[in-house]
Amino acid sequence: MEVMTGTRTAAAAPSDPDPPPKTRRRRDDAAVAALFLAPGLAGFVLFIVVPLGGSAVISLYEWPLFGTPAFVGLDNYSKLFGDPAFFTALTNTLLFAVVYTALNLALALGIALWLGTRMKGAGIWRVVFFLPVITPMVANALVWRLMLSDDGVLNAALGRAGVDGQSWLSDSRFALAAVIAMSVWQSFGYNVVVITAGLTSIPKEILEASRIDGTNPWQRLRYTILPMISPSLFFASTMTMIGAFQVFVQAQVLTRGGPGESTNTLVLYLYRNGFSFDRLGYASAIAWVLFVVVMLVTAVQFAGQRRWVNYDK
């Protein structure tokens, strides 16, 4: 009896229960998500993480384009902070970033408000303003170089008006302004789309109530519209500022960093050191300093958003 009872008890013992349906579903979803994320993560690691790590290593070497690298530690960074040309490029880049971002946002906001007045053909105008964004920057810069040359369209128009033309690209007083003007024209259409999206998200009832309260257009803009599109403005300002620190093509094509060093920027200075002067280690050090500068500026922008960005509508 005892043997039979023990056998029956062992046979009646339950096996390991299957996982609940919800748990199985979560595992399946996680596997599918990992499968879809794998190509993107692989590309991120291969084209972002690995180059970042490689540039950090190269910045610690005296690394010619052709030749044997030599480890120098932090010498590239110490030389960089003692290089007057670096600080000139940094100053030019900071000035470009501030003026370019301010003009870009002001122009984009004005045009977005104009397009939001229920005017006819607003969609066509949006396409017109966006065309420079999708046009290759090199092509745009070449057109602007022809237009701003000493015998270009702008000086010809000024001559017909009885005004003396200027050397817009070869005079240090105007060269950086010319680069900024071309850059704003190239990219403000993107911010027009971003700000227009913010404007269309404002409930019409709020604007109508503001009109009923007797506010004038300036008061509506300052106290109603701008606070409600502040998330769009914050996004546009952050992305525009990050792009401004990467300015390269405009200065390279229009002025090649001249006259003198008046339009030399950090990325252009990096490019010259890496591929013209055969100093890859020094160029990598410049790249990391630029990375830190962009991160600091972005951190300041995110810290300051608490004071003026309103996410509650």
List descriptors.
313 residues, mainly alpha, MetI-like fold, 2 domains, 14 helices, 2 strands, flat
Give structural notes.
There is one protein chain. This protein is mostly helical. It has 2 domains: 19-58; 75-308, Orthogonal Bundle (MetI-like fold), CATH 1.10.3720.10. It has 14 helices and 2 strands. The chain has helices at 2-12, 21-58, 75-80, 84-115, 122-134, 137-148, 153-160, 175-200, 204-212, 217-228, 230-244, 249-254, 266-276, 280-308, and strands at 61-62, 70-71. The chain has a two-stranded antiparallel ribbon with strand order 1-2. A hairpin with a 7-residue loop joins strand 1 (61-62) and strand 2 (70-71). The termini are far apart.
The CATH architecture of the largest domain comes to Orthogonal Bundle
Helix content: over 70%
Low-confidence stretches: 1-12
Across the major sheet, the strand order is 1-2
- Portion in beta strands: under 5%
Radius of gyration: 29 Å
Structure described in brief:
The protein is built from 14 helices and two strands. The protein is mostly helical and 313 residues long.
